Amino acid sequence: MYPLSSIVFCFVVLLTLLGGGTSQLGYRCGDSLVHHNENNIKIVLDDLVSNATRPGGFYKTKAGSGGSNTVYGRFICRGDISLADCQSCIEDAAKEVLVLCPLAEKAAGRIFYRQCTLDYSSNPMFGIEDIYTAPVVSCDSQISSEPQRFMGLLKNALNRMADAVAATSGKFATLEANVSSASKTMYLLGQCTPDLSKSECGSCLEAGIRFVPQLCYSTLGAEIILASCHIKYDMYPLSKILPSPPAPIRRPPVKGN
């Protein structure tokens, strides 16, 4: 978490949904009240990039002696992308965050892409639920023709999706649900950083879900990204995970006459 006493965040963003896998959605920069070690930030970012192909799409690291100059960093890639896409996203993020949050001026940085999030700070962040940092929010421009019914069905689907995410070891899940009288299918996706407990993950996703009626009421798609979790829904399939191919049919050998 980035405590307000030590970090002042800049740039709050509300975006319209756009296509593109590695399109940047937003960023945060932080000014620390303690001296920050630029070299340790570089070490952390290099380590994150070097581990961007780790299975699971999540990695955390730190550099420093444990005092005030210690820098903590982590990344998480969306649970349905390939390791190659994860690596590409993290490489882009590590470069761009230094442009947006120059080392000489900023002691913390967080950058959000559609496929990954990367952040570093002088404040501990591992296994800590952060629901206080302003989220990045994207809302579709299309509106449901039956908003009350839609929002009721959507809330139910989001809650079921959140339960599924929190219950998995990888803290990632997808869901399909009908959200209209015309039986239109809504596709939902949720994710938490895997180092959160089940209850912490559920709490983070619940916080994200609360933003939906406040900021994206009755829109047919939205994406809410907090520091520790991520929800997304839309009227077209979101996940790149393909179903397993059917098992081959084993036919008995043909016996000769």
UniProtKB/TrEMBL annotation:
Keywords: Repeat, Signal
Record-annotated Gnk2-homologous domain positions: 19-125, 132-238
Nucleotide-binding keyword on record: no
Pfam families: Stress-antifung
Gene3D superfamilies: Gnk2 domain, C-X8-C-X2-C motif (3.30.430.20)
InterPro entries: GNK2, GNK2_sf
Secretion signal span: 1-23
Entry superkingdom: Eukaryota
Name this polypeptide is given: Gnk2-homologous domain-containing protein
